[in-house]
Predict the structure of Glycoside hydrolase family 38 central domain-containing protein.
Amino acid sequence: MTEEFNQRKANQQVRLLHQAIYAGFTDIEGMSIWHETRADHRDVPPADADWQPVKIGDKWSGRDDYYWLRFKVQVHASEASQTVLRLDLGRTGEGNNSGFESLLFLNGKARQAVDSNHEEVFLGPEYDGQTVDIQIMMWTGLEGGGPKKSQHYVFTTAQRGPERRTVRKAYRYLSNIVNLIPELSEDNPLRYSYIRLVKHAFKGFFWATATPAETEKNAEHALALIDDFIAKHQNQKLDFAVDAIGQTHIDVAWLWRYRHTREKARRSFATALRLMDRYPDFKFFYSTPQVHKFVEEDDPEMFKQIQARAAEGRWEPDGGTWLEPDTNLPSGEALVRQFLYGTRYFEEKFHHKQTVMWLPDVFGYSYALPQIMRGFGIQRFVTIKISWNDTNRMPHDLFMWTGLDGSRVLTQFLTTVERTEDYSQSKVWNYTYNGEISPHVVMGSYHEYKDKDKSNVLLMPYGFGDGGGGPTKEMIENLHVIDKLPGLPHAKNKTVADFFSDLEQSVKDNEETYPEWNGELYLEFHRGTYTSQAKTKRNNRKLELALRRAEILATTALVEKGTPYPKKAFDRAWEILLRNQFHDVLPGSAIGEAYEDVDKLYAEAFDLVAKIIADRTTETTGIELSNPLLGATTQAFVPEKRQGEFKTADGTAVEAKRQGAGYLLPDVTVPAFGTTALTFTPTGEAPAAMQSNANQIETPHYLVKWNAAGQLTSVFDKDNDREAIKTGGLGNVLTVYEDRPTSFSNWNIDADYPEKSRVLSAESITTYQEDAGYRVVFKYQFDQSTVTQTLILANESRRLDFKTTADWHQHELLLRTSFDLNVLTDQATYDIQFGNIQRSVARNTSWEQAKFEVVGHQWADMSQRNFGVALLNDCKYGYAATDRGLSLSLIKCGVYPDTDADQGLHEFTYSLLPHRGDFIEGQVAEEAAKLNDPVVVRQHAASGLKPLFTFANADAVQVDAIKASEDGNAVILRVHNNTPGDTRFTVKPTFDFASAEQVQLDESPVAALTAGEDETFSLILKPFEIKTVAFKRN
């Protein structure tokens, strides 16, 4: 009890010492307030605005409202003592994710944030004798997700006074010492030495009658005792080092909109710059070019200050990508562009080459990342999010991560604990990227670090994120104290680059090697982010493919016709796509208002793409078919309601079969990346399709049967003489599950979700027989929602397409489709970026059990040696596989932070594809590509362009990009091997070129390439290897 009392008494004394800092402070008078009415409020308001008097105790409120507070201050400052403003104007909410934020302007210039974490403003000797104008742009903030609520605040404190540097220093030391004592074990003599020190240090402070002068004198005495103590115990520093990195994690959109992030960044960056003025050793890391660009656009003067600090080595712009994107859902090429745009911006604006991929808060990490990173010269990776796993702990915090193709990158997991985390009592699961600096945090973070035997250097980012304004003076001063106090490690302000140099040297000195992890870094949490906000995911997929097609067309037009390449338009469209891939936007975990902005940006990008294409086509009377894929195709669907005839340019008739609202052309050849011109002559109205109520249909490939509920009971593959549906099983079972995770509504799917469900039963089933084959329309009703599916079985196709429209008005439900498959395998294969990944369908281990929902892009497949079945999709990502078969998440309608997520119209298609052999022999990827990126039909417009390349022996190859090089001097061809085996293929340019060379993903040279006969290049690709070739133009 005695020691507990001493600890509590010491905390009390520390609080009293903190209060003494402000003894003699006086209230600021003459304050006035103005409710902002301007659309652009980046600069201070006019003097003749309708300013109203305001005083301490007055209230202000609003939701997403802006107010300005102004007053004047007569400064009396010197080198020894600055004038300090102390301001408590409102409170920021829990986690700094809601509520009040503000930016203080001094004489019309943005100076620093004022918020719950930054309540003091220091006015130095450069303002001595001046009367300065203070104006503060105050934002009411939002509610932090959920129902919209007005925010209410009180003007609590507005004071001015002297710095009282000695008292502040004594407080800083004694508060850290008192915080340290509980961290020292009860059998550590240093613990009791500190207790005695605290008693003696506080003994002279008699608070009842203490004057500022007496407090100053007692503070000097306490500091002298502390100096003596440190000198006496200087050999008792711990044998590890903390490399502390000042930073702030600002979500580009989450519980706020993009425009709010622009303001958060300006506030946080201003504060970081002022901290640099005050603390010469302070360094600041920030990872996101997109946010730097926001500040560059909104405050050019501040941006120049940032550039100057970066040139000094104190502002570290690093992190690799355009912003911190989700890495589960973007395509491989989109991830390449994240790095391409990110690295180029930082090199252009800061002359800083990227050294690390910095993704602290992302919901899982693609197996493809190591290869992409190394393609940009980045070999270091940092995150903390895997600590949020709900089932398993990763075995190491420091390791070499091996990717899909065998590329390896050095990986560091952060173990920073929260200030309130009692790490001594239980294992910490959720580490933080919004770290604070205190003895408890330092010791806890070291305690949690699993690889102490490998390295004695700890990376510790610190600074409040989002609305918290980043590092504080308290954090920086605590770091200085921790560096000196016995019983704690050495702690210095460092850069991330410094840390990795220290880390690699430490591992070398310890004669250790790095552990290894080969595989994806799957986050056992936030599995619902593969499905939430379906409209955004659909737009993402469609825009990725549209940009690819437009780049191919624009590059071809550049080479063949000399049409200028629209680099500016492409840059804008790509930046929109990349911004919307932010890790709280594309995953579906932002507020509804953020998605209003997202939708507008997508519309702008699609318009840009449409204009790029329109500018490179000419008006015709016919039809142009354009094939965006590597393989030549012999099928196309042409929308056309009238009856009529199709012919080629030379007048040859083209077979056309009626299918729904158009024609299927089953035997028209469109070359890879080429075009075919057709004409259409109408002959009358199209006949109506034959209707029936049959419960089975037969095509040249399948005999398909279904029950009265609309579920498939049999899919017999006539080509392979195999039944695809498991005996006694069903296919396309639409099931609604209760989806009420215990936390993170729009992020999570809990493992027990299958326990409560309802199976949808079709209210009507209608079969249509047409020239091209069959359409079966299933209509479902569930509560307030309807689902309409058209099963399309074309005679010439091996796919069973389920074209779906849902009018959805439910909450906290998960809609899935499932197929019981007649396949015996212990693995399922999933399409991911630049390849595919196998995952177990068993549930033997906790690692397998945790993967009850996983990511797949365009397809997932279950195969045995001679037969398999794939489930394809055109805009979905959340798959599950068990020994029964495959299922796919279609709609997840959570209620936080967006209370109306996924309401309204949904359109998507998924397809069942039975096939011979495995996914390679069964051409699963090729069929998925045709579903996602079918032949483009241009009515009354044509480009007249020919393919830039011809390929041979390229069955294993996928073409990811054909584009103009960033410098405009070459044609870039990017391909990857989509199989787990080596492959050799040939490519021949159809245009004149000066030379060819293999280049990195950043388009820097690797090696010259020599053509064989007929200017043909033979290229070898290792399993899942990406290869980029630049053909220099003449």
